[in-house]
Please model this.
Amino acid sequence: MAAEKMSLSKAINASLRTALETDPKVLIMGEDVGKLGGVFRVTDGLQKDFGEDRVIDTPLAESGIVGTAIGLALRGYRPVVEIQFDGFVFPAYDQIVTQLAKMHARSLGKVKLPVVVRIPYGGGIGAVEHHSESPEALFAHVAGLKVVSPANASDAYWMLQQAIDSDDPVIYFEPKRRYHDKSEVDTAAIPGPLHAARVVRPGADLTLAAYGPMVKVALDAAAAAAEEGKSVEVLDLRSMSPIDFDSIQRSVERTGRLVVVHEAPVFLGTGAEIAARITERCFYHLQAPVLRVGGFHSPYPPSRLEDEYLPGLDRVLDAVDRALAY
Model:
Protein backbone atom coordinates (compact mmCIF):
# COMPACT_ATOMS: atom_id res chain seq x y z
CA MET A 1 0.00 0.00 0.00
CA ALA A 2 1.32 3.43 -0.94
CA ALA A 3 1.77 6.06 1.71
CA GLU A 4 -1.28 8.22 2.30
CA LYS A 5 -1.36 11.78 3.54
CA MET A 6 -3.62 12.04 6.57
CA SER A 7 -4.15 14.14 9.66
CA LEU A 8 -2.80 13.05 13.03
CA SER A 9 -6.34 12.36 14.29
CA LYS A 10 -7.17 10.32 11.19
CA ALA A 11 -3.96 8.32 11.68
CA ILE A 12 -5.01 7.44 15.24
CA ASN A 13 -8.44 6.40 13.96
CA ALA A 14 -6.79 4.23 11.28
CA SER A 15 -4.49 2.68 13.87
CA LEU A 16 -7.38 1.82 16.17
CA ARG A 17 -9.27 0.34 13.22
CA THR A 18 -6.29 -1.84 12.32
CA ALA A 19 -5.97 -3.05 15.91
CA LEU A 20 -9.69 -3.89 16.14
CA GLU A 21 -9.52 -5.81 12.85
CA THR A 22 -6.35 -7.68 13.78
CA ASP A 23 -7.06 -8.75 17.36
CA PRO A 24 -10.56 -9.58 18.69
CA LYS A 25 -9.26 -8.97 22.22
CA VAL A 26 -8.74 -5.24 21.54
CA LEU A 27 -11.48 -3.06 23.03
CA ILE A 28 -11.96 0.70 23.01
CA MET A 29 -13.53 2.36 26.04
CA GLY A 30 -14.28 5.93 27.04
CA GLU A 31 -16.74 8.76 27.35
CA ASP A 32 -18.54 9.40 24.03
CA VAL A 33 -16.10 7.28 22.01
CA GLY A 34 -18.91 5.31 20.37
CA LYS A 35 -21.97 7.00 18.91
CA LEU A 36 -20.41 10.46 18.97
CA GLY A 37 -17.01 9.26 17.80
CA GLY A 38 -15.22 11.20 20.53
CA VAL A 39 -15.24 14.94 21.16
CA PHE A 40 -12.42 15.29 18.62
CA ARG A 41 -14.00 12.61 16.35
CA VAL A 42 -10.87 10.49 16.71
CA THR A 43 -12.94 7.30 17.13
CA ASP A 44 -15.51 8.25 14.50
CA GLY A 45 -17.16 5.28 12.79
CA LEU A 46 -15.52 2.59 14.91
CA GLN A 47 -18.57 1.63 16.97
CA LYS A 48 -20.70 1.51 13.82
CA ASP A 49 -18.28 -0.93 12.20
CA PHE A 50 -17.25 -3.04 15.19
CA GLY A 51 -20.25 -2.88 17.49
CA GLU A 52 -21.01 -1.72 21.01
CA ASP A 53 -19.22 -4.73 22.54
CA ARG A 54 -15.88 -3.61 21.06
CA VAL A 55 -16.22 0.19 21.18
CA ILE A 56 -17.85 0.96 24.49
CA ASP A 57 -19.43 4.23 25.63
CA THR A 58 -18.74 4.46 29.36
CA PRO A 59 -20.21 6.53 32.20
CA LEU A 60 -18.46 9.77 33.16
CA ALA A 61 -16.23 8.02 35.68
CA GLU A 62 -12.53 7.96 34.83
CA SER A 63 -11.57 5.84 37.84
CA GLY A 64 -14.21 3.31 36.86
CA ILE A 65 -13.07 3.31 33.23
CA VAL A 66 -9.46 2.53 34.09
CA GLY A 67 -10.44 0.10 36.85
CA THR A 68 -12.66 -1.80 34.42
CA ALA A 69 -9.84 -1.85 31.86
CA ILE A 70 -7.53 -3.39 34.46
CA GLY A 71 -10.08 -6.13 35.13
CA LEU A 72 -10.49 -6.77 31.41
CA ALA A 73 -6.72 -6.95 30.94
CA LEU A 74 -6.53 -9.51 33.73
CA ARG A 75 -9.02 -11.60 31.70
CA GLY A 76 -6.89 -11.46 28.56
CA TYR A 77 -8.25 -8.40 26.77
CA ARG A 78 -6.22 -5.45 25.47
CA PRO A 79 -8.27 -2.38 26.38
CA VAL A 80 -7.56 1.02 24.83
CA VAL A 81 -8.97 3.65 27.18
CA GLU A 82 -9.67 7.22 26.16
CA ILE A 83 -9.56 10.00 28.76
CA GLN A 84 -11.62 12.72 27.11
CA PHE A 85 -9.32 15.59 28.17
CA ASP A 86 -5.98 15.75 29.97
CA GLY A 87 -7.39 17.45 33.06
CA PHE A 88 -9.95 14.67 33.51
CA VAL A 89 -7.35 11.98 34.14
CA PHE A 90 -6.83 12.77 37.82
CA PRO A 91 -9.86 10.87 39.16
CA ALA A 92 -8.20 7.82 37.55
CA TYR A 93 -4.70 8.67 38.80
CA ASP A 94 -4.93 6.28 41.75
CA GLN A 95 -5.97 3.37 39.55
CA ILE A 96 -3.17 4.15 37.07
CA VAL A 97 -0.27 4.60 39.49
CA THR A 98 -1.16 2.19 42.30
CA GLN A 99 -2.74 -0.64 40.30
CA LEU A 100 -1.98 -0.43 36.58
CA ALA A 101 1.69 0.53 37.01
CA LYS A 102 2.50 -1.87 39.83
CA MET A 103 0.68 -5.13 39.09
CA HIS A 104 3.55 -6.60 37.06
CA ALA A 105 6.05 -6.04 39.88
CA ARG A 106 3.56 -6.99 42.57
CA SER A 107 2.99 -10.37 40.91
CA LEU A 108 6.72 -10.96 40.36
CA GLY A 109 6.19 -10.77 36.61
CA LYS A 110 3.32 -13.27 36.43
CA VAL A 111 0.62 -10.71 35.63
CA LYS A 112 0.75 -8.37 32.66
CA LEU A 113 -1.65 -5.50 32.05
CA PRO A 114 -1.65 -4.54 28.35
CA VAL A 115 -3.69 -1.35 28.77
CA VAL A 116 -3.28 1.80 26.68
CA VAL A 117 -4.53 5.06 28.16
CA ARG A 118 -5.03 7.65 25.42
CA ILE A 119 -4.95 11.25 26.66
CA PRO A 120 -5.41 14.31 24.41
CA TYR A 121 -3.11 16.85 26.07
CA GLY A 122 -1.67 20.33 25.92
CA GLY A 123 -3.04 23.76 25.07
CA GLY A 124 -3.48 25.91 22.04
CA ILE A 125 -7.14 25.16 21.26
CA GLY A 126 -8.81 27.94 23.23
CA ALA A 127 -10.40 25.58 25.75
CA VAL A 128 -11.80 26.25 29.19
CA GLU A 129 -10.25 25.28 32.54
CA HIS A 130 -9.05 21.66 32.97
CA HIS A 131 -8.85 21.10 29.21
CA SER A 132 -5.26 22.17 28.45
CA GLU A 133 -3.01 20.37 30.92
CA SER A 134 0.39 18.75 30.29
CA PRO A 135 0.71 16.13 33.05
CA GLU A 136 3.20 13.84 31.33
CA ALA A 137 5.91 14.22 33.97
CA LEU A 138 3.53 12.96 36.66
CA PHE A 139 3.22 9.65 34.82
CA ALA A 140 6.83 9.44 33.63
CA HIS A 141 7.86 9.59 37.30
CA VAL A 142 5.95 6.36 38.01
CA ALA A 143 7.90 3.14 37.52
CA GLY A 144 5.93 0.58 35.53
CA LEU A 145 4.40 2.97 33.01
CA LYS A 146 5.57 3.68 29.50
CA VAL A 147 4.83 7.26 28.41
CA VAL A 148 4.94 8.35 24.77
CA SER A 149 3.71 11.16 22.53
CA PRO A 150 3.67 11.32 18.71
CA ALA A 151 4.40 14.56 16.88
CA ASN A 152 3.14 13.60 13.42
CA ALA A 153 0.59 11.36 11.74
CA SER A 154 3.03 8.56 10.89
CA ASP A 155 4.19 8.26 14.48
CA ALA A 156 0.59 8.59 15.68
CA TYR A 157 -0.33 5.50 13.67
CA TRP A 158 2.69 3.34 14.42
CA MET A 159 3.32 4.30 18.03
CA LEU A 160 -0.29 3.46 18.88
CA GLN A 161 0.07 0.08 17.15
CA GLN A 162 3.16 -0.59 19.22
CA ALA A 163 1.50 0.62 22.42
CA ILE A 164 -1.45 -1.73 21.89
CA ASP A 165 0.94 -4.63 21.18
CA SER A 166 2.90 -3.92 24.38
CA ASP A 167 2.30 -6.16 27.37
CA ASP A 168 3.09 -3.21 29.62
CA PRO A 169 0.71 -0.30 30.29
CA VAL A 170 1.31 2.69 28.02
CA ILE A 171 0.18 6.27 28.55
CA TYR A 172 -0.28 7.62 25.04
CA PHE A 173 -0.39 11.43 25.00
CA GLU A 174 -2.00 12.92 21.89
CA PRO A 175 -1.08 16.55 21.09
CA LYS A 176 -4.58 17.85 20.52
CA ARG A 177 -3.57 21.09 18.81
CA ARG A 178 -1.81 18.99 16.17
CA TYR A 179 -4.82 16.75 15.42
CA HIS A 180 -5.36 18.44 12.05
CA ASP A 181 -1.70 18.54 10.97
CA LYS A 182 -1.16 16.26 7.98
CA SER A 183 1.79 14.11 6.93
CA GLU A 184 2.51 10.91 5.01
CA VAL A 185 1.61 7.61 6.66
CA ASP A 186 2.80 4.30 5.25
CA THR A 187 0.72 1.63 6.98
CA ALA A 188 2.87 -1.09 5.40
CA ALA A 189 6.15 0.25 6.74
CA ILE A 190 8.31 -1.38 9.39
CA PRO A 191 8.36 1.02 12.35
CA GLY A 192 11.41 1.78 14.45
CA PRO A 193 11.54 1.13 18.20
CA LEU A 194 8.71 2.74 20.18
CA HIS A 195 10.98 4.58 22.60
CA ALA A 196 13.72 5.71 20.21
CA ALA A 197 14.27 9.43 19.66
CA ARG A 198 14.64 10.59 16.06
CA VAL A 199 16.62 13.37 14.41
CA VAL A 200 14.06 15.23 12.29
CA ARG A 201 16.41 18.02 11.19
CA PRO A 202 20.21 17.64 11.21
CA GLY A 203 22.36 20.45 12.58
CA ALA A 204 25.84 21.19 13.86
CA ASP A 205 25.73 24.08 16.34
CA LEU A 206 23.03 23.12 18.88
CA THR A 207 20.54 20.35 19.66
CA LEU A 208 16.91 21.32 20.15
CA ALA A 209 15.02 18.44 21.80
CA ALA A 210 11.22 18.37 21.97
CA TYR A 211 8.27 15.98 21.83
CA GLY A 212 4.60 16.01 20.94
CA PRO A 213 3.13 19.44 20.20
CA MET A 214 6.43 21.29 20.52
CA VAL A 215 8.29 19.47 17.74
CA LYS A 216 6.68 21.74 15.15
CA VAL A 217 7.74 24.81 17.15
CA ALA A 218 11.27 23.43 17.38
CA LEU A 219 11.39 22.88 13.62
CA ASP A 220 10.12 26.42 13.01
CA ALA A 221 12.79 27.74 15.38
CA ALA A 222 15.52 25.79 13.58
CA ALA A 223 14.35 27.19 10.25
CA ALA A 224 14.38 30.73 11.63
CA ALA A 225 17.83 30.22 13.15
CA ALA A 226 19.13 28.95 9.80
CA GLU A 227 18.26 32.31 8.24
CA GLU A 228 20.82 33.81 10.63
CA GLY A 229 23.44 31.22 9.78
CA LYS A 230 22.87 29.00 12.84
CA SER A 231 22.71 25.24 12.32
CA VAL A 232 20.23 23.71 14.78
CA GLU A 233 19.57 19.98 15.04
CA VAL A 234 16.00 19.05 16.04
CA LEU A 235 15.50 15.83 17.99
CA ASP A 236 11.99 14.42 18.40
CA LEU A 237 12.18 12.60 21.72
CA ARG A 238 8.89 10.69 21.15
CA SER A 239 9.08 8.97 24.55
CA MET A 240 9.14 10.43 28.05
CA SER A 241 9.51 7.08 29.79
CA PRO A 242 11.86 5.56 28.99
CA ILE A 243 13.86 8.46 27.57
CA ASP A 244 16.32 7.67 24.81
CA PHE A 245 19.34 9.26 26.48
CA ASP A 246 21.75 7.54 24.10
CA SER A 247 20.34 9.41 21.10
CA ILE A 248 20.39 12.71 22.98
CA GLN A 249 23.98 12.07 24.02
CA ARG A 250 25.06 11.31 20.46
CA SER A 251 23.47 14.52 19.23
CA VAL A 252 24.98 16.65 21.99
CA GLU A 253 28.42 15.17 21.42
CA ARG A 254 28.12 16.45 17.85
CA THR A 255 26.71 19.91 18.63
CA GLY A 256 28.00 20.73 22.14
CA ARG A 257 24.78 22.45 23.19
CA LEU A 258 21.28 21.36 24.22
CA VAL A 259 17.96 23.17 24.64
CA VAL A 260 14.95 21.09 25.79
CA VAL A 261 11.45 22.32 24.99
CA HIS A 262 8.06 21.18 26.30
CA GLU A 263 4.67 22.73 26.99
CA ALA A 264 4.58 21.54 30.59
CA PRO A 265 6.02 23.78 33.30
CA VAL A 266 9.82 23.89 33.40
CA PHE A 267 9.86 23.29 37.16
CA LEU A 268 10.46 19.54 37.75
CA GLY A 269 9.47 18.82 34.13
CA THR A 270 10.85 16.22 31.74
CA GLY A 271 13.51 18.71 30.70
CA ALA A 272 14.92 18.76 34.22
CA GLU A 273 15.73 15.04 34.12
CA ILE A 274 17.20 15.36 30.65
CA ALA A 275 19.32 18.34 31.66
CA ALA A 276 20.69 16.52 34.72
CA ARG A 277 21.40 13.27 32.89
CA ILE A 278 23.03 14.89 29.86
CA THR A 279 25.16 17.09 32.09
CA GLU A 280 26.43 13.92 33.75
CA ARG A 281 27.00 12.10 30.47
CA CYS A 282 28.31 14.93 28.30
CA PHE A 283 30.07 17.24 30.75
CA TYR A 284 33.25 17.47 28.67
CA HIS A 285 31.36 17.92 25.40
CA LEU A 286 29.04 20.71 26.55
CA GLN A 287 30.01 24.20 25.52
CA ALA A 288 27.07 25.76 27.39
CA PRO A 289 24.65 24.81 30.16
CA VAL A 290 21.65 22.74 29.14
CA LEU A 291 18.74 25.19 28.88
CA ARG A 292 15.03 24.48 29.27
CA VAL A 293 12.01 26.17 27.73
CA GLY A 294 8.48 25.42 28.86
CA GLY A 295 5.36 26.63 30.58
CA PHE A 296 5.38 28.71 33.72
CA HIS A 297 4.99 27.22 37.21
CA SER A 298 1.39 28.34 37.50
CA PRO A 299 -2.07 26.96 36.77
CA TYR A 300 -2.90 26.98 33.09
CA PRO A 301 -4.38 30.42 32.32
CA PRO A 302 -7.68 31.34 30.64
CA SER A 303 -7.57 30.76 26.90
CA ARG A 304 -7.20 34.48 26.16
CA LEU A 305 -3.77 34.34 27.82
CA GLU A 306 -2.55 30.94 26.67
CA ASP A 307 -0.39 32.36 23.88
CA GLU A 308 1.62 34.14 26.57
CA TYR A 309 1.87 30.97 28.64
CA LEU A 310 2.81 28.49 25.94
CA PRO A 311 6.45 28.48 24.80
CA GLY A 312 6.47 29.86 21.29
CA LEU A 313 8.98 30.70 18.61
CA ASP A 314 10.43 33.76 20.37
CA ARG A 315 11.09 31.98 23.68
CA VAL A 316 12.73 29.04 21.94
CA LEU A 317 14.91 31.30 19.79
CA ASP A 318 15.89 33.30 22.88
CA ALA A 319 17.15 30.07 24.51
CA VAL A 320 19.01 29.15 21.30
CA ASP A 321 20.70 32.56 21.26
CA ARG A 322 21.65 32.33 24.93
CA ALA A 323 23.16 28.86 24.48
CA LEU A 324 25.13 29.93 21.42
CA ALA A 325 26.41 33.05 23.21
CA TYR A 326 28.55 30.99 25.62
About this structure: The chain has a mean pLDDT of 97.
